[in-house]
Amino acid sequence: MASPSSPLHSAAILCIYFVLPAFAELQRFQHQPKHDGSLNFLVIGDWGRKGHYNQSLVATQMGKMGDKLDLDFVVSTGDNFYNSGLKGVNDPLFLQSFSNIYTAKSLRKQWYSVLGNHDYRGNALAQLSPLLRKIDRRWFCQRSFILNAGVAEFFFIDTTPFMRKYFNNSNRHYDWRGVLPRQKYLKTLLKDLEEELRKSTARWKIAVGHHAIRSIGHHGDSPELVKHLVPVLKANNVDMYINGHDHCLQHISSTDSPLLYLTSGAGSKAWRGDVKETHFDVKFFYDGQGFMSVQMTENDTNFAFYNVFGEKIHHWKVTKSTMHPSI
C-alpha cells in the first residue's frame, strides 16, 4: 500500500485516475500511525466559501486544536467548494477556499476528502485529479477508497450517486462521468464495500460519507442510505458513520446497534434554524459553525465538537469492549 506523501503514491494515483475503469475495486491506502499507535484527526465538512460565513474563523480554531492534538490528518466530509464545485484543475477557487484558508502549521497534514452533491455540480473529475496535488500536496480526494491508519480503518463512500433526487432534477447540472450507468455503479460499490468490511481486521472501523444517514437537521435522514448502507455497516460491526451535508454538528446513537452517527458539516454557512423530530437517541445537536476532533487508541475513542470560538460544546468517550463485547 502506498503512502499518500510518497513518490510511489503519486504514481499510484495517476494510475488510478487514468488507467483503471470507473467500476474498479476500492483502492487501499496507508497512513503511517504514530509510534504509540494512537490516532488524532479533525473532521470538517461543507466549508469551501472563500473564507466567508465564518469559514476562516473555523479554520483558525482548527489550527489551534491541531497543535494541541499532534494531528495526524484531516477528514473532509464533502461539499468542498461552493456553490458548484471546481470548474477545472486551475480554478482559483481551490486556492481561495482551501490553500489560502487552512494555513496553520498543524493543518499542513494530509486531507482525505470525499465529494459532496455541490462538488458534483461542477467538474467532479477536477477534484479527483492528481494535478491538484502539485498545487497543494495536502489534497487527496477520491470517490470511494479505504484508508488504513493502524488502529483504525476508514471506508470513504461516495454517497451522492445514491440520492435519486439528483438524477431527477433537470434544473441543475451534475457531472456523472464515471458514475453512469448508476445502478451498476452502486451495485459494484456496495459489493466491494461489503467484501472489504467483511475481511477487515481493524480494531476500529469508521465509515465516512457526505450525506447523513440519520439527522434531525435541515436535510434529515437519507432513505437510500438507510436502505442500502445501514445493513452493511451494522452487519460488519462498523463503529461510526461520519458525514457532512447538514450544516451542523450532531451526535446520534442507534437504538438497535452500537453504530454512532456523527455529523460534522458546519465548516462555513450554518444556522438553518429547522430541527426535525426523530425516534433516534439524539445526544447532541448544534446548528452553528464548528468542527469535530477524534482521538483514538486501541481501546478508546474520544470525540468532541468545537464552535467557532474554539469552545468544546460536546464530548463523548466510547470504549471498544462495551461497543462490541464479542470483538
UniProtKB/TrEMBL annotation:
Cofactor: binding details: Binds 2 iron ions per subunit.
Locations listed in the record: Secreted
Limits of the Calcineurin-like phosphoesterase domain: 40-248
EC number, UniProt record: 3.1.3.2
Known cofactor(s): Fe cation
Extent of the signal sequence: 1-24
Annotated GO MF terms: acid phosphatase activity; ferric iron binding; ferrous iron binding
Record key words, sorted: Glycoprotein, Hydrolase, Iron, Metal-binding, Secreted, Signal, Zinc
One protein family per Pfam: Metallophos
Enzyme category, top tier: hydrolase
Residues bound to Fe cation 2: 79, 117, 210, 245
Catalytic activity, as annotated: a phosphate monoester + H2O = an alcohol + phosphate
A GO CC term attached to the entry: extracellular region
Residues bound to Fe cation 1: 46, 79, 82, 247
Family: Belongs to the metallophosphoesterase superfamily. Purple acid phosphatase family.
Name of protein: Purple acid phosphatase
Organism: Glycine max (Soybean)
Gene name, Swiss-Prot/TrEMBL: LOC100813453
